[in-house]
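Quick question, first post here. What does this chain look like in 3D?
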Amino acid sequence: MTGSNARGHGWLLVAFVVASVNACGSSDASKGGARGAGGNAGSPGAGGALASGGGAGESGESGGSPSSGGAGASSGGASSDGGAGAPASGGESSDAGAGGHRSVDGGDAATDSGDAVPGETTCRTLPALTGAVCTATPGTSGGLLVTGTVLGPDGILRGGEVLSDARGIITCVGCDCRSKDPDASVVTCPNGVVSPGLINTHDHVQFSQNPPHVDTGERYEQRQDFRLGLRQHTQISYSGNATADQIHWAELRFVLGGATSTVGQGTALGLLRNLDKTDQEGLAQTPVVYDTFPLDDGNGPELSTGCGYGPNERTAASLDPLDAFEGHVAEGIDDTSRNEFTCLAGADASHDLLGPKTAFIHGAALLPDDYRKMAESGTKLVWSPRSNLALYGDTARVTVAAREGVLLALGSDWLPTGSMNLLRELRCADDLNRTYLGRFFSDRDLWKMVTVNAAVVTATDDVLGALAPHHLADLAVFDARVHPDYRAVVAANPADVTLVVRAGKVLHGDLALVTALSPDGCDEMDVCGSKKAACLDSEIGKTLAELAIAAPGLYELFSCGDPPDEPTCVPARSDATRGAVYDGAVTPTDSDGDGVPDDQDSCPNVFDPPRPLDQGAPADADADGIGDACDPCPLDASASCTAPDPLDVDRDGVPSPGDDCPAVANAGQEDADGDGKGDACDACPARENPGNLPCPATVYEVKSGVTPTGSAVWLSNLAVTGRLPSGYFAEALPGDAGYQGSDYSGVFVFQPGNTVAVGDRIEVTSGVVASYFGEIQLSPSTTRVVSPGAVSSVDPVIVLPADVATGGNRATALEGVLVAVENVTVTDANPPLGAGDVAPSHEFVASGVRVNDFLYLATPFPTVGAAFSRITGVLHHRNGDSKIEPRSAADLVP
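> Answer (accepted):
Ran it through. Tokens below.
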């Protein structure tokens, strides 16, 4: 276990919430029942995002052949989702069905994807707003209140409120949150929906300098075919190693599409939370382990049987210390693709990767029994339909996976054959669903694939993916004037992204909102005729213009229609020697465009062409005459079956995000300290530490050894007494709550790039207790300034030189504390170097105690015999000696 959570997430680098919270409802009503699949028909209008951006790449699974068809299943149903009004109740009409199994041909009967109809509450009717989605009024507390149609974990709050505190933690979701912080900044959105920030569970951002692949019409059977040019296929060229600027450009493209987190394989500080790296922008969970080649087969071979892949195949034991694992498995449509799954799903127990920590990316070459194994073990599926269709002309049988109880998340894959951002991947999934999958998924289903489901995949569902108390305020507001509710996200275009916030910090949005909410300079930009702004300088140290110069010639940041050269989302294959042939055209005699005439098709309304792994026959695992893709019970001819709830990862009957221990079974949801973290997974069940916050501690506990090294802690109400770019000293002061005297009251906080100042009141929002060559300090750490310059002066502890000299009786107890010695004389101006000291040391000895230059170099440097009536400084153990660290000339009083 690491950090404060038995799941091992690490800890949030945000501060501890001491105020009580108000949950309007925290448990997702996603169990049981079936949903209506009709309503909100129609193919969404063109959109996407791109205007001068970099590509997102695919390490080792790059390239594909985008078809010329752009984004879409153009022959879908007539549009009925263009109205601005919200449905009377129960969410959008595709969520309004009830009970029973879906019809076998996928029609418009109730969906059985396992998600109950969410509730709806009307909190208030917001005053009409003309010409804008939201208005903003800046506040003074550091909190943020967002009001609008809130897409909450239990359903929709109309005129609902989401309140976060100055630390970026949600403290209230409900109908009356503003009374809890009347001084918060307020964003009021009569015309907007408020969603969690989108989470991209699959991208390869280190390939972001590549453009979309030019589609020649060639389709492949397995990923090694296009990567290595095997089996008489054409190899696709691509390059990796994108620069930090190129990655920033690609991440900005995702932010402009409403994303706040990604699993991208590459990384750069700022903008997105990189959940598979340590660059998580304030969230320090154990990184997702992201493996493109879990079979160690980056250079082949392709095997249809047997498991003799590379010598370093990932083992089951390697998952033990992890919270979340994502591996590329079964990417293709033939036996060689499926064999990857076979070898990682129990053929060899030592390499069996199935389990609740695992998500398989792609999983296109799987059969119903494979999906059942995934569901029963809690293994998830990351779906990347655009890239699958562009490369293979087919994609995972997601209707089967959902019916079997597999949790689905969505990922953009990479720019050469995937989507430029999550909005375009949502658009592809939506087009595919409406035109080829019989509208199996509701708008809410698709939205969940990039919010709560994505958080479950990345093991961050205790703090991300839902608008709920104790979660981080990662949120996005979308224009709902054309499309209501979940549809506002699924059908969004770049101009519809009204506001994007990460832990309460504005990243992007409408110019008027950004100007009101962000005091830092942000870059104005025109997005399809809408005035927007992106806040880059505070994130990456460059303006938008400077970034464009540093990363020239990359793919655009957004597009006002279908993005140029976008890989296809239309299923098609034209080589009869390599499987079925179809062009995706929906006709009166082929309702699902899979090339099989309706009168011969066991799923006439759900796309399911025979794949090479199906040996040319329609897939029908239970031989009941109903194809797997539309069979309510693909493995049971009796048509009576149940599936586990994919959001109940720990199988305790409480689904995420309402489960206070998502990965530890605790049906009773006991939570003694009321911090939203169940006792079963709380490292300090008697001390509040909501979300992934570390356990609170005192500086005395840290410095005296009560809190052991290696512990993650949060310290509050300290005063900065000395500072340099790599870190600072802070201590508790007389009169502070909990003050226990000067001994063990100070600590050095290692934090390169800190911006604190002497006199600031701060809290160390997260730090790890470490012994640095004998001195207890905090490293690494993050800090929040609570009150800038609140402490005008700190009285030092007057000590005798012998007490604080190396080995002195108070030298250890006063490490990190501001001390002073009086009436001392310089006895050595060049003492012997300690271990690690470098000549010249710039130290001198005053009446037996060393005085160092860590914070300030005495100028002029004193000579032997020089007398001082007082020397003040922070006591520091460095290079084997205890040393006083003056902070300025004022600390050396002759």
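Residues 422-436 form the longest helix (15 residues).
The two ends are 53 Å apart (CA to CA).
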